[in-house]
Amino acid sequence: MTDTEALKRRAAERAAEWIRDGMTVGLGTGSTVRHLLDVIAERRAAGEWAGIVGVPTSEDTTARARRLGIPLATLDERPRVDLTIDGADEVDPQLRLIKGLGAALLREKIVAAASAELVIVADDTKVVQRLGTRAPLPVEVDPFGAAIQVDFLRGLGAEPVLRERDGAPVVTDGGGRIYDCRFAGGIADPEALERALLMRPGILECGLFLGMATAVVIAGADGVSVRTREDAR
Ligand SMILES: O=C[C@H](O)[C@H](O)[C@H](O)COP(=O)(O)O
């Protein structure tokens, strides 16, 4: 395991301490969450957490969790999620996040909004003073007329790039397309930007998760630290 993967594993182990048997647990998406799925599977193999049910936030997580034998339900079946554990691409001092480099932002945000708690797991490279200085902001759009969003996004100060893989647009689990948006100097006012984006017809969601994280578990070379919403106030 590389150093970074070892840090992600440590963060996942610490975040797993939030899990109690019988909980409905939102399962995020990404390389850090993969470690969490392993931890859950190991604990279940050891006879613990027989009563937990996972609500996955992507097809990728669904497939992995199934392979590991973790019981799953849809959000329709379990609309009240006790706890979601998910990764992030950036975390700022107020526990505001950028998510979505794995293209799962829409379902992740829906599950996060249905969760009593959202615990974020990350290695310390994700910590920033200002959102948008390290990662681009993913903006998911409906494919219908997707190109008209480019000028709109530029009008908000973004430099949008359509996310592609192997020469074709990336298609999200819900059928959307993604513009990765860079902002010179970062995002000055994340709340205002999110409002402007979500009012625009055709924009389905953006990767800003504001006021949603209840705790953030960060693993670095010096150990694992936990920050809660209360600490951030
Ligand atoms: O769409 C993907 C998600 O928001 C991920 O949780 C995020 O990109 C972090 O992923 P990773 O743990 O692989 O860095």
Task: Based on the model shown, name its key terms.
single chain, 233 residues, alpha/beta, Rossmann fold, Alpha-Beta Plaits, six-stranded mixed sheet, four-stranded antiparallel sheet, 7 helices, binds ribose-5-phosphate, isomerase, Ribose5P_isomerase_typA_subgr
Structure commentary:
The chain has 233 residues and is α/β, with parallel strands linked by helices. It is 28% helix and 28% strand. It contains 7 helices and 15 strands. It has a 6-stranded mixed beta sheet. The chain has a 4-stranded antiparallel beta sheet with strand order 8-11-7-12. Helix 1 (3-15) packs across helix 2. The protein is globular. The termini are far apart. The protein binds ribose-5-phosphate. Ribose-5-phosphate binds next to helix 2 and helix 4. Homodimer. InterPro entries: NagB/RpiA_transferase-like, Ribose-5P_isomerase, Ribose5P_isomerase_typA_subgr, Ribose5P_isomerase_type_A.
List the helices and strands and how they pair.
Layout: H1 3-15, E1 24-27, H2 31-45, E2 53-56, H3 59-67, E3 81-86, E4 90-91, E5 97-98, H4 105-113, E6 115-123, E7 137-141, H5 149-155, E8 158-162, E9 164-165, E10 168-169, E11 177-183, H6 190-198, E12 203-206, E13 208-209, E14 215-220, E15 223-228, H7 229-232
Parallel strand pairs: 1-2, 1-3, 3-6, 6-14
Antiparallel strand pairs: 4-5, 5-13, 7-11, 7-12, 8-11, 9-10, 14-15
Helix pairs in contact: 1-2
This protein binds ribose-5-phosphate.
Ribose-5-phosphate binds at residues 28-32, 86-89, 99-105, 108.
